[in-house]
């Protein structure tokens, strides 16, 4: 009996020690995004990942969306130089969506109305760097061109390697179009199931009425509209857990007051972000914050979700169903974040931006 008791105690002690070791291990993240800059909501979420000692960023993977891939890569590399974090690999991904194109988008607009934001396909404007017909143009960065280069290989291959190296441990934070993830899923059927979870900034369910009652430029589900087929592939893949943040992100705003609060502590990062800040919602920043700290969520709901890929009026629109009436044609269960503790979120963002990034 004594031997049995000792054995049981040792087994319990081993379990406790193993759980403590796991708790001490950093959260592993791959951030996939359309990192157009020089600052603004595509660059700013990076600070939430870099400043948290409990997070290890395995890499940043770049996809065309708000801008073209190569320009976005240069913007991200330059920011990482400012933050002295060029140790993290930046890996190029897809330049073009799977099927959608500028020509298809123009044809859709002729039939069903204008899209308020087309990202890399935006028409050229004075004072803007939109170059829809020149996807490989990289304009000079206003703070100086980066000297570091992207890592070799492709985003899809990089992500596949990481989830195989760290099975069920890697959080994929996707805050741009989902082309890179769709390619990874098609290349490796095990990819989604080997990830720990997917956190996606997109799936705006109330955007249509908000385009009428609010700002049409802001209320656009662009991360899905740019590549609806990729979104369909990703949202119907067998992830262990999927969390989406759409409408809730529009409850935020980068106000002059928030910029001044951030810039009150002067570092190369805060001065850079303040100089290039844009008064837009903190879309990607909220997604990054929630991926790291789920306790920020104050209200959420579960639903089955998919994307319309028929080339009609509803192309690229998200649909949700409860189990009772879902078609069960591959749509997956997702957690839809409906409310977040905004005061805590703003505090976390400011603290991350002011983090004393180490110099080399």
Commentary on this structure:
With 360 residues, the chain is α/β, with parallel strands linked by helices. It has 14 helices and nine strands. It has a nine-stranded mixed beta sheet with strand order 3-2-1-4-5-6-9-7-8, sandwiched between helices. Helix 5 packs across helix 6 and helix 11 runs antiparallel to helix 12 (268-275). The N and C termini lie far apart (59 Å).
Spans of at least 5 consecutive residues whose pLDDT stays below 50 are 16-21
Beginning-to-end CA distance, first to last residue: 59 Å
So, CATH architecture? Alpha-Beta Complex
Number of domains: 1
The amount of helix comes to 25-40%
Mean pLDDT: 93
CATH class: Alpha Beta
């Amino acid at each position: 009996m004594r031997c049995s008791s000792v054995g049981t105690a040792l087994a319990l002690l081993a379990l406790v020690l193993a759980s403590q070791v796991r708790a001490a291990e950093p959260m592993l993240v791959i951030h996939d995004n359309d990192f157009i800059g020089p600052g603004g909501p595509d660059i700013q979420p990076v600070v939430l990942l870099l400043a948290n000692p409990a997070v290890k960023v395995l890499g940043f993977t770049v996809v065309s969306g708000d801008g073209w891939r190569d320009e976005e890569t240069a913007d991200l590399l330059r920011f990482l130089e400012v933050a002295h974090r060029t140790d993290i690999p930046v890996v190029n991904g897809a330049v073009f969506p799977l099927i959608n194109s500028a020509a298809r988008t123009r044809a859709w607009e002729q039939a069903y109305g204008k899209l308020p934001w087309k990202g890399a396909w935006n028409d050229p404007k004075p004072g803007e760097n939109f170059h829809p017909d020149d996807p490989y143009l990289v304009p000079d960065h206003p703070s100086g061109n980066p000297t570091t280069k992207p890592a070799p290989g492709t985003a899809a291959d990089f992500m596949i390697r990481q989830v195989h190296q760290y099975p069920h441990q890697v959080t994929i934070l996707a805050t741009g179009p989902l082309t890179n993830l769709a390619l990874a899923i098609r290349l490796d059927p095990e990819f989604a199931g080997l990830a720990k979870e997917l956190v996606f900034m997109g799936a705006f369910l109330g955007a249509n009425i908000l385009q009428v009652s609010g700002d049409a430029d802001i209320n656009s589900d662009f991360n899905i509209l740019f590549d609806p087929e990729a979104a369909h592939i990703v949202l119907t893949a067998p992830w262990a857990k999927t969390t989406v943040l759409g409408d809730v992100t529009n409850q935020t705003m980068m106000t002059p007051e928030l910029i001044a609060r951030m810039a009150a502590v002067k570092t190369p990062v805060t001065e850079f972000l303040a100089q290039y800040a844009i008064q837009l919602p903190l879309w990607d920043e909220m997604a990054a914050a929630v991926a790291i700290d789920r306790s920020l969520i104050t209200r959420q709901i579960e639903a089955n979700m998919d994307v319309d890929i028929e080339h009609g009026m509803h192309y690229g629109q998200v649909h949700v169903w409860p189990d009772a009436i879902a078609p069960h044609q591959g749509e997956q269960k997702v957690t839809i974040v409906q409310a977040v503790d905004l005061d805590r979120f703003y505090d976390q963002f400011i603290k991350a931006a002011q983090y004393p990034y180490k110099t080399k």
